[in-house]
Structure formats: C-alpha cells, structure tokens
Amino acid sequence: MALRNTRILLREFERKSLNTLAASPVVLGSVTTSVTAADPCSFDLTTPVTTKAASPTEEDTTTSEKARRSEINLDFNDGKKLFSSVTTGKLIRSMLNQQMASYEPIVDVGIKVMRSRLVETMIVKDFIMSMVKHTFYDHFCAGENLDEAKKTLQKLWNGGLKGIMDYGLEDATDNASCDRNYNEFLKIVETTKLLPPSSVSYACVKVTAICPISLLKRVSDLLRWEHKDSSFHLPWKVDTLPMLADSSPFYHTMSRPNHLTPSEEYDLHQAHQRLIKLSEKCLESKLPLLVDAEYSSVQPAIDYLTYSTMIRINRDGNRIVHGTIQTYFRDAKERLIQATEAAEKMGVTLGLKLVRGAYLSSESQLASSLGFPSPIHRSIQDTHACYDECASIMLEKVAQGTGAVVLATHNIESGRAAASKVESLGLEKSSEKVQFAQLKGMADGLSFALKNAGFQVSKYLPYGPVDMVIPYLLRRAEENKGLLSASTFDRQLMSKEVTRRLKAAVTPSTSQ
Ligand SMILES: Cc1cc2nc3c(=O)[nH]c(=O)nc-3n(C[C@H](O)[C@H](O)[C@H](O)COP(=O)(O)OP(=O)(O)OC[C@H]3O[C@@H](n4cnc5c(N)ncnc54)[C@H](O)[C@@H]3O)c2cc1C
User: Fold this and answer.
1) Residue 191 sits in which domain range?
2) What count of other Cβ atoms lies within 10 Å of the Cβ of residue 238?
3) Is Flavoprotein given among the entry's keywords (predicted)?
C-alpha cells in the first residue's frame, strides 16, 4: 500500500517537475512568492531573505543592517560566475532532487516507509535502497567509500571549495564497534595526506561512534548532577571547560545517578584515549578536527570529552580540536560565553563549530513527554538571533587571537552577517581560523558566493554504504521539506542559471 502511494506520488512529482523545468524562472519563483514579492532570483546585498513583516523599529534595524551589509560583496546575481564550475546536467539533477526533497507528501511517505518494518523484507529493502541511492543519496552523500568520496572531493576542489570528510557512522554500542569506527576515522586522517594540499579543511568525528551510547548517557547524567550539587564528587573527571550552564535543561536526570562502575570507568577512559589519539594524529598532520554535536541526553558527555581533549591539544596557538554548539538551545549562548572565558584563563585556543541543530523535533518531543518545556528557542527568530550573536562573539575571539570558528550554516542572512563582521573586525577573509561550511547538496549558491568573496568555504562530505547513512538522510529530508526550506533560495538560483544557459544555447549571439 505504502509502495503504491509512493509510486503515485513519484509520478505526480515527476509531472510537476517536468512542468517546472519547462517553465520560466518566474514560474519557478512563484512557488515561493511568499518569500519575496519581486523576481525571487534577483537578490542583491541589500535584499533581506525573510518572511517576517517588519515593525517600525525593525525597519530602522533593517536600514542600518543594509548599510552594514553593503560593505560585503556576496554576489548572488551573477549565476554564470556563481555556478561556473557546475555542469548544466548537475544543476538540473540538483534542482530535481531538491524539489523532490521539498515535496512534503513524498518525504513523509518516504520517511514512514524507511522507519516501517517494510524495509525488513529483502525485496522491498532492495527497491527502496536503489531509489534512495539514485536520488537523495547521490545528492547529499559523497560516495559509498573513501575512494568515491575522494572523487567528489576532487570535483569540489576544482570548483574552489574544500571538503570535510565525514564517514557516516552512527551510534556505537560496545567497545568492539568503537574500535572499528576509530580505525575508520584514522583512515580519513591518513588518506588526507595523499590528497591535494588543503583540499580537505577538517576531519570530522562523532563521539557517539567511539564511545558506547549508553555510557555517554550515564556520564551526562553524572555531569548534570555534579553541576546541581557541588558536593557530588566525580573521581574520574579530568580538567575540562564548562559544559553546562544554570539555564541548561536538567529534566534528563531527575534522581541522583549511581557512580560509574570500574568497567564503565575503564570504557570511558578507552573512549577518551580514542579521541585524544585521533586528535594527536590530526595535530601531526596539521588537520583540524570537528567533533559533531548530537542530542541533549548525551551532549554534556560529548562536550566533556571534547573540551578535555581540547585543553591538551589546542595549546601554543594550535587550533586542532573543535567542539560544536547548537544554537537552537536556549542555553547555547550562556554555555558558549562560559567556555570562552574558561579557555582564555587556561591559555587554550577555543575551537568551535556553530550550527543551529538537527534534532529539533526529537528534542521537543522528549521534553514534552517528561512534562517540561522545550529546550529549543521559542521562535525561529530567537534561534537566528542566537546563532548570529554566538557567531559574533566567536569572531571577536578570533580577532583577539583566542578562538577559531567554523560557521556551519545555509542561512543567507547569517552568512552575510558573519561575513560583514569579519570585515568590520579587520580579519583576513582567507584566515584559516574563520571558515564557512555547508552540507553537500545544500546552499551551493551561498558556498560559491562566499568563496567568490574570498572566504574559506567547505562542503561537509558524508560517505558510506547507503543503509549506513539512512539516519543522516532522514535528517536532511526533514530539514529540506516544505516550500520555505533552506533549499528554496538555492533552487531559484539554479533555475535562473539553467534558464540562462538554455537561452544562451538557443540564441548564441545574446549569450553574453
Ligand atoms: C558543516 C555542517 C556541520 C553540521 N554539524 C552538525 C552537528 O554537529 N550537529 C547538529 O545537530 N547539526 C549539524 N549540522 C546540521 C545543522 O544543524 C542544520 O543544517 C541546521 O539546523 C540548518 O540551519 P541553518 O543554519 O542552515 O539555518 P536555516 O536554513 O535558517 O534553517 C533553520 C532551521 O532551524 C530549525 N530551527 C531552529 N530553531 C527553531 C525554532 N525555534 N523554531 C523552528 N525551527 C527552528 C528549523 O528546523 C529550520 O530548518 C551541520 C550543518 C553543517 C552545514
């Protein structure tokens, strides 16, 4: 039944997409007329991409924002220059995939099927995996193994972008799987040495893949309890930066947790050693390392391991280990400020990747199931403001020589605000300590515009067998569905450029 529905939806989608492709960019743009009234593709530096109606005071802010932004040359208008390294075939495929990802009924049915027991049937599984492989997977992932990922990286590099290699491992359950995953991460660092110099900007690791997830939960509980009760002593705890703030949610740990057993302490030590050794390898190869952030039930333990490793490695001006702050959390800014202050006192370079966060619905659902308010900002505007404030604080730390930041976002306004701040602080645009990053298959327009303006820009390149990266693809599907998703603006830019190329092919004399 679900499969039949999927087929019907796919047919409907195909029909709509063909109509869309045949249409002019204005027709494509009309899909999102709620974003902007005029030609949606004609964005310039002073056109805020916002759905919010401006109040008089907001209008004032917008005017001063405009003046500030006009210093920045992020050019989205020249599609020819923007997508000069992308073939027309690739542009069309990207548009189709993004359009399919934004079509809610397809995504909803797809997600239901992937999470259902249907995928346990071999024939259904093969069919679904093959469909996913030729659509979402090819769009969002870099390949099934490191060799394929290297080819994707080479294409990016030819277009002036760098890559962040990310082996798509999800949660580990025991020490044996942690060791296997650790060896895969090491392989990435080793392989980087054989790639064109600086084509890879960072290696990337998930602590949930090198420490058993149940242990991360236990350690997070203990850290939360220690934050609440200073007399609660954790004998295994080493020097670290603050991971929790008074505004952090504590509903995960409602009663005093038992202390770690000797075998749990041993496993924690092992996990810490894996992260330390990986960071030392990165230090040897001068390859910075990004530690991903996950869900709040395990994040305190991830931050604990990351910050304590950072204290050992990011000394003497080294900026190797980077943690991640998810700015959709209401306590994000307080935690970030605490970490910057503590790092400064210790003489440690604080490396951070800033994201909005990818587990929005599960975080809210967990809080609500326990009878607590969501830990996420009440409105998306609050999340945007938090992201921009955290970015601003980190850029100031870079200017003072005490921080390094990766601005991981697809949001045009956040990209522009950060780019303006870099200029106003007088930082080198090409500084290695300030880098922008987007996911493969998302916000290519922003990536190229930032690169053309002189910034360091990377694409996150997840790779691995199709069934292994399904959780990642489900998160991307959630993120991209809906007409106002992050990919809308990108589709408009690509559509405009495809139309320009098609017109140029038909009437060569007017192609310039
Ligand atoms: C290089 C890179 C690395 C990443 N690493 C991580 C990681 O380690 N951990 C992780 O969790 N994510 C990670 N992400 C994913 C990232 O969190 C999502 O891509 C991000 O949420 C999309 O936001 P944006 O900055 O692109 O902004 P936008 O395109 O403006 O997206 C806004 C998104 O914010 C969400 N949102 C946040 N707060 C609210 C709110 N209060 N109300 C409604 N919606 C809200 C919505 O779902 C919406 O999709 C990474 C992304 C990149 C590019």
Assistant:
1) 142-468
2) 13
3) yes
